[in-house]
Amino acid sequence: MSTKISVKPLPARSLRRLCETTRLPFKTTAELDAKEWLIGQERALEAISFGAGVDRPGYNIFAISPWQSGHLDAITSHLETLAADQPAQHDWAYIHNFDDPRCPRALRLPAGEGRRLARRLDDAIVQLRRTVPLIFSSDEYRARIEEVEREMNDVIQNLQDRAEANSVAIMASESGLRIVPVSNGRPVSAEELGGLSPEDRRRLEIVIEELQDELDRIVERLPEWEREARERVEELKTEVASRTVEYIVGPVREAYSGDHPVADHLDRIYSDMIENIEVFAEEEDEEEGYGFARFQPSPGDPCFKYRLNVIVDQSETGSAPVILDDHPTYGSLVGVVEQSADLGSPTFDFLSIKPGLLHQAAGGFLVIDVEELLTMPLAWEALKRALKTGAISIDTPRDFIGDVGMEKLEPEPIPVTCKVILIGDRFMHYRMTVLENDFSQIFRVIADFNDEMPWTDENVVLFAGLVARIADRDGLMPFDRMAIGRLVEEGSRLSEDAEKLSLMIGPLSEIMGEADHRAALQGRSAVTAQDVDAAVYGRMRRGDLLKERSHEYILREFIQVQTDGMRVGQVNGLVVTGLDQLFGRPSRITATVRMGQGNTPEIEQIVDIQKEVEMGGASHSKGVMILGAYLRANYSPNLPLCLSASLAFEQSYSFVDGDSASVAELCALLSALAGVPINQAYAITGAISQMGEVQTIGAVNEKIEGYFDICSARGLTGRQGVLIPKTNVKDLMLRRDVVAAVEKGRFAVYAVDTVNEALEILTGMPAGSRGRNGSFPKGSINRAVEDTLSSFAKARFEAEKVASKVGRSVFGA
Question: Cα–Cα distance between 717 and 391 in angstroms, integer?
Fold first, then answer.
């Protein structure tokens, strides 16, 4: 029995929405203002502006948008607009801690002051290293030193002159310095003394005694004279050092006097330079020199403690910084203390401190890829600690510095003054919220980016402005209005909704870049629709090897899929698969039925073979369970469902999930129950409800095209087609070759609301509705199904009666 099918194929015009380019108020995008990035993102922009404006802890921002979506440039552009109204705040530097060198101090300075002060200090060091050796080797300084030494020398020289006039001399002996008689520069012997007259010996003894007494007094006072000389030399050195340091460092010290935050430190530097002036007294290396551009004291150089380590320099910023970190490591976020070696020994000092991006973004914004953040060791923990405490602590982990016995530097923490914006998809935000208890307290603001907007004439113009902005950024040639039309249509296909336009800037910019390349090869001055079409086809072509192989297995009948003929309990379902590029393909679904255990509810009445072999997911199993609910609700409601059925995706070698094949499975099951064959020229997709409604599924374009490609390769007969949920019609943006085939009547697409409509198309028979008497009409599919289920129930009842009689007979009941 055949019936006239009430559901008609969809007209070709409903299969792909075309952009009416005649309405576009421009010829090429060169005429458009290419300033707007974030179209259709008012909600997200309001969130970012709100988070940026709240000066309280915890109001950091999580932007829900995949890093690859292309929204990154748009987000940073918006942040730069906000930052332009915020002046640069301040510089930060680390300085030597004279009280505890292991704990360098953090110094906050007005914006731009850090670099100026660092240069002045470095210049002062250079001048001192050049000046001090000259001053301390000058004739004037040496004369002052000699003048101090001359007083002691004069006393000794006077004694020596008097001794020489009296034929005696000062000579060293085992008992010390002694006055002895001499003749011709040598001591007089005892024999020579014996030859002297008594008067001469007596005179000589008196002279020796007097001079010895004087020499003893001189020797006794010698330590005191030397101490006084050293003190006078030290006073002279300090005086010269003070004048030299004052001349060179004094102007720097004066410039930052009073309440300036660096004043106390400059006082310490000033005093330490005077106290340790000798560190500048070494002669300058004539070959290397100490010019400012090359002056880089090592940790072994004592001059390093007078320098300034500027880690935040906003001298050329002008406004608050916007920094992007697409590779956030521990060190890149909070900074590190770099290890250096002095004569092979690992050392640290405050000059070894290298800033992190949290430092450099001071007063501005730091944008981070959350997925990358979570893959880096300790990076998230470091960021979380900084945002919770409000301070950036540079605490290099031992794993990063190697020697566990090494003494670590502990720099003073610096306050966090930037806003952090994490970018990630919705799942990543959910994951962070669930797994990190304090995540929502650190990132209180959610900027939820829309990935689509309504397809209206006004939004098409905005979309064209976005194309112009991307072209301007990437250095592409203008796009003419027909090219914009193609991009609009492709944007709609990307959104899987013919009433929407995709705002995924990443895929759009990739198509634009390839279209520009193809236009350039043709020598055009603007990108045309042909170039966009070629780019779309080229991208599809390069990524469809897996699709080609999959379809080849079907065409060579390694995988059995019929596209003609009639079969009972068999239907062509549609699945979508792929990695980088999704594609659809048909899959043969079969059902078998027999009488089951109606009084044993724990025994499954419909067996999902995919689930049994652990090749099916929860969503697919849910769809199969709905089939049982549908059967119980629609057939023989007063009888138990005595059915044992099996459903299988034939020759399926991969995991199956989702409920988009549940309507196909139900049609196969009903075909098996009714004994009515299904036309294999059709394929069907859709989810089923317990009430028999065909519900929306995803990837409808790819599924239709997958079946069309198989039919086209085998030869279109005009009888082939695809059944889809009626609610998916608004999603259709099919390839132009599919639309052309439908327009010529060589292929058909049907939109169905219920399983009854699907059965009538697939079988060519009426599904049948219950009449006033509560029965389905004879000759209908539903009547045949109900008759079969009723016969199963009655047969089961009879079998149970027989079993009961046998039981009473055996056990004497």
Answer: 73
Burial letters 6-42, b for 16+ CB under 10 A, else e = ebebbebebbbbebebeebebebbbebebeebbbbbe
Q: What's the pLDDT score for residue 74?
A: 78
The span from the CA of 216 to the CA of 195, in Å, is 29
Query: What pLDDT score was predicted for residue 722?
Result: 97
pTM of the model: 0.75
Give the active site residues.
660, 703
What are the E-state strand segments in 103-156?
105-110
Residue 667: count other Cβ atoms within 10 Å of its Cβ. Answer: 29
Alpha helices in 564-608 (DSSP H): none
**DSSP code, position 727:** G
CA dist 399 → 283, 404, 760 (Å): 41, 8, 70
b/e 241-271 (16+ beta carbons within 10 angstroms → b): bbebbeebbbebbeebeeeeebeebbebbbe
- Between CA 573 and CA 173 the distance in angstroms is 121
Q: Where are the alpha helices (DSSP H) in 613-766?
A: 618-634, 662-674, 700-714, 736-743, 755-763
Mean pLDDT of the chain: 84
How far is the C-alpha of 751 from the C-alpha of 771, rounded, in Å? 26
* pLDDT one-digit tens code per residue, 604-640: 456 544 444 444 445 545 656 788 788 888 888 778 8
Q: Residue 181 pLDDT more than 80?
A: no
Element (DSSP H or E) covering residue 805: helix 781-811
String of DSSP letters for 168-221 = EEEEEETTEEEEEEEETTEEPPHHHHHTS-HHHHHHHHHHHHHHHHHHHHHHHH
Q: Which of 746, 723, 777, 810 is nearest to 5 (CA)?
A: 723
pLDDT average, residue stretch 737-766: 96
Q: Which long-range contacts (CB under 8 A, 24 or more apart) does 544-550 make?
A: 544/581, 544/583, 546/577, 546/578, 546/579, 546/581, 546/583, 547/578, 547/581, 547/583, 547/585, 547/706, 550/577, 550/583, 550/585
Ranked by mean pLDDT, which of 137-141, 344-348, 770-774 comes out on top? 770-774
Strands (E), 417-481: 419-424, 445-448, 452-454
Q: What percent of the chain has pLDDT over 90?
A: 47
Backbone angles phi, psi at 775, to 5 degrees: -110, 150
Q: How far is CA 714 from CA 59, 61, 477, in A?
A: 61, 54, 42
**Alpha-carbon torsion, ordered 287, 292, 298, 300, to 10 deg:** 80
CA distance 640 to 173: 134
In the block, residue with structure tokens 């004037």: 140
- What's the pLDDT tens digit per position in 748-762? 999 999 999 999 999
- In three-state secondary structure terms, 102 is coil
CA distances 252 to 263, 277, 706, Å, are: 10, 18, 77
Q: Residue 430 contacts by C-beta under 8 Å, 6 or more apart in sequence?
A: none
Burial of residue 543, with CB atoms counted within 10 A of its CB: 0-12 exposed, 13-18 middle, 19 or more buried: middle
pLDDT band of 112, cuts 50, 70, 90: confident
**Which run of H or of E encompasses 474?**
helix 457-474
Single-letter amino acid code for the residue at 102: R
How far CA 285 is from CA of 241, 296, 495, in Å, comes to 21, 14, 69
More confident residue, 579 or 729: 729
**Stretch 36-60: mean pLDDT:** 87
Q: What is the 3-state secondary structure (H, E, C) of 377-390?
A: CCHHHHHHHHHHHC
Identify the bridge partners of residue 342 per DSSP, sorted by sequence position.
345
Phi, psi of 326 (to 5 degrees): -95, 5
Helix axes 198-255, 263-275, angle to 10 degrees: 160
